[in-house]
Amino acid sequence: MAANTSGEAEGSTTTTEEIETKNENSEVESHEDGDNSSEKETMDWDDFVDDVALKDNEITLSEEDKKRLKEEAEEIKEKGNQQFRDGEFRESAVNYTLALRTCPLSFPIERSKLYSNRAASKMKLGLSKSAIEDCSLAIELNPTFVRALWRRAQLYESTDKLDESLEDCKKILEIDPSHKEALIAARKLPDLINERNEKLKTEMMSKLKDLGNLFLRPFGLSTDNFQVNQDPSSGGYSVNFKQ
């Protein structure tokens, strides 16, 4: 996938809005085949943003100072956008972090975009867990931010959090019923969730059978001496003993 994807999202001097929309649905494809149990790369930079310190500092700022800092943050973000386009994902994430440390808290929409952009950089680095956290921060600042919701939905799906992914897709469709990718995902995910649940149920029954045999063996019995029947109406199970 080309570098000019959703990380360069908001505020770029080029037509990045169109580029991002076009490539959103493929943003996490490069992460789907790997081991989702751990991050592919270790984050070797400090991405902490001290909101408490920002809040304390902002008390002393004039409106003019706030505007100036916002403009500085925009310039830093543009640098990060260019680095993202150039495939320098770590460097872009570092600059989005610097922009977040610069932009006053009184500009939540701008900060939301910065968190969303940083999430895109982290996605490219295989830092799925941290990217999800950034998406959540972006959504907390702007609950109707479709781009961040969709990005998080993709990340949830790629890390096997299918229920969470479906919930985000539903939220997206409440905001934008015509969102093509969310519509497709919302139709696909219920089947994937059912398939996963059936697999988990089968694995659980197998483990219960092994455990049952362990306890029944001293009595000359096994789980084969018990018949398990499922009630089709309630979905519950009953157990009958058989010789």
From TrEMBL:
Biased composition (Basic and acidic residues): 19-43
Pfam families in the cross-refs: TPR_8 (PF13181)
Coiled coil: 52-86
Residue ranges with Low complexity bias: 1-16
PROSITE patterns linked: TPR (PS50005)
Keyword Lipid metabolism: no
Start and end residues of each stretch annotated as Disordered: 1-47
ATP-binding found in the keyword field: no
Entry keywords, A to Z: Coiled coil, TPR repeat
Intervals holding TPR repeats: 146-179
InterPro entries: TPR-like_helical_dom_sf, TPR_domain_protein, TPR_rpt
PANTHER family reported for this sequence: TETRATRICOPEPTIDE REPEAT PROTEIN 1
The protein's name: Tetratricopeptide repeat protein 1
Source organism: Megalurothrips usitatus
